[in-house]
User: Which sequence fits this backbone?
């Protein structure tokens, strides 16, 4: 694996996996997927200050550079791009606006977060000109906004959604999980339990009620939202919505965790039994 500091050292046409480092098996799965598609796989590591609404969160964001190099190399990344701030934001930054969808749910909690995400992704796309780019479904609202960004301004870049990787007890892998104590780590499984219960419910009202009930039973978990939305536009879903997704976010001792799961309305929400 070659490590580069500037996109000028990289040809166009790679499969691209942008990250903020603190790499884990979830990222490795994206890199491996990329490698099945191409012999030219670029991963970037750039902790984007614009997407943090709070300087404390930016400061506390985990940084594990040595391990990152190891994980990226082992998972098939051919070029690891470590841009400097001045490459991404050379002058005064013109922030892109994510629009109304960027103000809901995660965007309502973290003002300006999605403006920061679409701004950095468009800068990364401009600098690298990849053929395709892979994003995890774990950040489903981000994925939806990036699909919209590509449709609008980067039609030649294929956006690929990769499934969420989970621990054996269902906890979605996240760079933030390393900030949890063992107790908090165990409590965090409440999110997966709530999502799977929702998926097994008869209808949306019972799914929503069950998610709230299950989350309220875990005293360490402070729920922010638990909702079933229409995947297309994040409007609150009804039983006749064709593509429904359950989304949950909350806090465990100051660490924000999010997760989501596709519902299966074709069989009356009974995805898994
Ligand atoms: O999902 C992430 O890690 C980040 O939001 C991204 C897409 C790399 C932009 O900074």
Assistant:
């Amino acid at each position: 694996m070659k490590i580069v500091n500037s996109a000028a050292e990289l040809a166009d046409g790679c499969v691209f996996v942008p990250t903020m480092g603190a790499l884990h098996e979830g990222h490795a799965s994206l890199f491996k997927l990329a490698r099945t598609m191409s012999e030219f796989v670029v991963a970037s590591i750039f902790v984007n200050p614009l997407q943090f609404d709070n300087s404390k969160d930016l400061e506390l964001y985990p940084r594990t550079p040595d391990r990152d190099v190891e994980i990226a190399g082992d998972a098939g990344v051919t070029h690891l791009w470590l841009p400097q701030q001045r490459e991404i934001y050379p002058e005064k930054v013109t922030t892109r606006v994510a629009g109304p969808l960027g103000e809901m749910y995660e965007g309502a909690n973290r003002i300006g977060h999605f403006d920061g995400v679409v701004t950095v992704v468009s800068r990364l796309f401009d600098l690298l000109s990849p053929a395709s780019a892979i994003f995890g479904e774990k950040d489903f609202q981000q994925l939806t906004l990036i699909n919209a960004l590509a449709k609008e301004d980067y039609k030649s870049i294929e956006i690929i959604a990769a499934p969420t990787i989970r621990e054996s007890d269902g906890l979605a892998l996240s760079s933030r999980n390393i900030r949890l104590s063992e107790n908090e780590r165990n409590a965090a499984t409440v999110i997966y339990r709530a999502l799977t219960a929702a998926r097994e419910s008869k209808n949306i009202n019972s799914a929503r009620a069950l998610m709230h009930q299950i989350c309220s039973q875990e005293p360490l978990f402070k729920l922010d939202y638990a909702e079933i939305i229409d995947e297309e536009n994040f409007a609150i879903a009804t039983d006749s919505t064709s593509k429904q997704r359950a989304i949950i976010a909350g806090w465990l001792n100051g660490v924000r965790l999010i997760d989501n799961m596709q519902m299966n309305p074709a069989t009356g929400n009974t995805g898994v039994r």
